[in-house]
Amino acid sequence: MGPALVQEGELMLQALLWDLLAIPGVKVVVLRDRRLPIPAGFSGPIQWVAVERDPEALFAELLGSCDAAWPIAPETGGVLERLCRTVALAHKPLLNSPAETVAIAASKLATARCLEAAGVAAVPTELYRPTGAPPPGAWVVKPDDGVGGQGTYVIEPARPARWPDRRAGRHVLQPLIEGEALSLSVLFANGQSRLLGSNRQQVVRDGAGFTLQGLTVNGVAEDAQLRALAAGVGRALPGLWGYAGIDLIRSAAGLWVLEVNPRLTTAYVGLRRSTGLNPAALVLDLWRHGVLPEPGAGRRDPVAIHFTAELPASTAGDARRDEHPECPAAVAGDDGLFHRER
Fold first, then answer.
1. In a 3-state reduction of DSSP, which class is residue 189?
2. Are residues 30 and 152 in the same domain?
3. Containing domain of residue 295, as a range?
4. Angle, vertex CA 96, rays to CA 95 and CA 102, nearest 5
5. Poorest-confidence range of 58-67, 75-84, 119-128, 304-313?
6. Which residues have a Cβ under 8 Å from the Cβ of 228 and sit 6 or more positions away?
7. Contacts by 318-321, CB closer than 8 A, 24 or more apart
8. What is the CA radius of gyration of the chain?
């Protein structure tokens, strides 16, 4: 996992910790890679994971002492799906979409088919088959379960084709659609949705691929089209629950869903400052009472988030800068607050 994704995971964890600790009565214990530093301002218990240990096994062990879990992990390789399934098998409340929905959203091909079947405009997606000549036009090739643009590149008529090796895992093809890169921050429950953020992404062409350099949370005016798209995604994937993100492209032809992220996204980092609402508290209220916030709740101030290419320095010892740690997982509970299961 590259430094950029590590940094995004760090930002998400830090924001989630601040939001959870601002809620009266909530205590948090964190499962943490030993190569990373203690989160800024956090004095709660940390379960350190050494390089040679299995973080998923430790996650399962830690669940026994907690009342609920909120994993921060990529979909790649089924990591997030397995963590969510582990929480369900432990009969603990999961503050995230269930494993079955994560499995669908983790696949760009499966997601596109679900959205299209529900009448939601998705970027046309087909399975890459390593036979024959490249199709005409410009295409984006990416891993079916990829995150953060890793392994994504563009094939254009003017540049030599660079097709993935058959052994590199399942890839998909999508036409290159020119337009504005946006994302939505949404709360979902039982097919319903509430839009919290409509965000402008700073995506640049980096060689043959793409790099997300930053974004502006609520940098795009919320409108009926964006709300309708979020509602359509909720109906197409009714298992989505809690916070999730939607990546999309706004072209001259309209809005096209690129992918659905059934987890925290980087835009979460700026939501509290942008809206004045505590999104973690909204998720807990949703779990306890089953109620989504009112439409249009909170203000919509633009908040810019920029990335660097640096890994955080370790203060826990056992740091190895030539290795890239997995994204951390946050587990909330052990305070008497989470005693009802959904």
1. strand
2. no
3. 3-120+177-332
4. 160
5. 304-313
6. none
7. 318/34, 318/35, 318/50, 318/51, 319/34, 319/35, 320/35, 320/51
8. 20
